[in-house]
Each structure stands twice: as structure tokens, then as C-alpha cells.
């Protein structure tokens, strides 16, 4: 008998709680999911997108991985592509690098050229350099504290480390140089 009384009081609380809550607002199922690239495409820098298309870059992949890059006002698509081609990269290599590391187009050409000179301190030739960039584009286009990086490369060279070891550190652990 006591348990009936307890159940009644609990059910009354639940009923009163339901009455206090506002009724749920129902929306169509598909309205809950929006296709993000449609919203983003209206905000995207159309010049950047067009330049990336000219370089045969898969824009959908960039939207999926790092769409924020396409929203930037100031980008250097052609300049970065030219620097990579000067190093010996063909069109497919340039497209692959820009797809895998789209933040490269936000780096200024002067900073990229400075990074290029730094990495050439440990690479035998430009062919080796472009192979490293193709394999590790994120490490190359992580441009922070370039003067500190240069000093650290010189320090490792003074310690007697071989350039092969230093280049592996540059690619595998770029934070060591910051």
C-alpha cells in the first residue's frame, strides 16, 4: 500500500514537470543538417578558389580539411606555386602539396623564400629539397621564428650533426627548431 502511494507521488511530480517544460519544437529531419560548403562558398574568397582550380587543386578536399584557408582575404596561390615550380616541382606535385597543406597559400612569398634558404642549408640540391617538401609540406610551411630556426640549424651544424640528420629533424620534429 505504501509503494502505491510513493508511485503516485512520483508520477504526479513527473506530470507537473512535463507541464512546466515547453513543448519541443519539431523541425524537419533534413533541416537539422546543413551542407556546410554551401554556406562557406558564399563567404569564400572567389579569387583564391579560381586560382586553386587553375592549379588543379581539389577544392572539396581543402573545404573538408581546412576550409578556413578559403575564407582568408589575402592569399598567395600563384606565388607559392611559382616558388615550388622554381624548385623543380611539376603541376601534379604542386597540386598535391597545396591539397595536403592548404595553409601554404596564406604564407607570404618572402617568408617562404626565407624558409627555402634555411632548408637549402641542409639539403644538397633543390631536387632533394622539393622531395622533402612533397613528403612533409606541413613542416616546410610552418613558418614561425625563422631567425631562431636558422640559429638552431647553425648550432646543430657546429655540433657536428650531419645535414641528413638535421633535415630529418626539420621534417619530423620542426618544433625542435622554434
Automatic annotation (TrEMBL):
GO MF annotation terms: nucleic acid binding
Any Pfam family the entry gives: mTERF
Keywords: Transit peptide
Name the record gives this protein: Mitochondrial transcription termination factor 2
Taxonomic placement: Eukaryota, Metazoa, Chordata, Craniata, Vertebrata
Keyword match Transit peptide: yes
Keyword presence, tRNA processing: no
Family: Belongs to the mTERF family.
Superkingdom, natural source: Eukaryota
Organism: Homo sapiens
Amino acid at each position: 500500500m505504501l509503494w502505491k502511494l510513493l508511485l503516485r507521488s512520483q508520477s504526479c511530480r513527473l506530470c507537473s514537470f512535463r507541464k512546466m517544460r515547453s513543448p519541443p519544437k519539431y523541425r524537419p529531419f533534413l533541416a537539422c543538417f546543413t551542407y556546410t560548403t554551401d554556406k562557406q562558398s558564399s563567404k569564400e574568397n572567389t579569387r583564391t578558389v579560381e586560382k586553386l582550380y587553375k592549379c588543379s587543386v581539389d577544392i572539396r578536399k581543402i573545404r573538408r580539411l581546412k576550409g578556413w584557408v578559403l575564407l582568408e582575404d589575402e592569399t598567395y596561390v600563384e606565388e607559392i606555386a611559382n616558388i615550388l615550380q622554381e624548385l623543380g616541382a611539376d603541376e601534379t606535385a604542386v597540386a598535391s602539396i597545396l591539397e595536403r597543406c592548404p595553409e601554404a597559400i596564406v604564407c607570404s612569398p618572402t617568408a617562404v623564400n626565407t624558409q627555402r634558404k634555411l632548408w637549402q642549408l641542409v639539403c644538397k640540391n633543390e631536387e632533394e629539397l622539393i622531395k622533402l617538401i612533397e613528403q612533409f609540406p606541413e613542416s616546410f610551411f610552418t613558418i614561425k621564428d625563422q631567425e631562431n630556426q636558422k640559429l638552431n640549424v647553425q648550432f646543430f651544424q657546429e655540433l657536428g650533426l650531419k645535414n641528413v640528420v638535421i633535415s630529418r629533424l626539420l621534417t619530423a620534429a620542426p618544433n625542435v627548431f622554434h
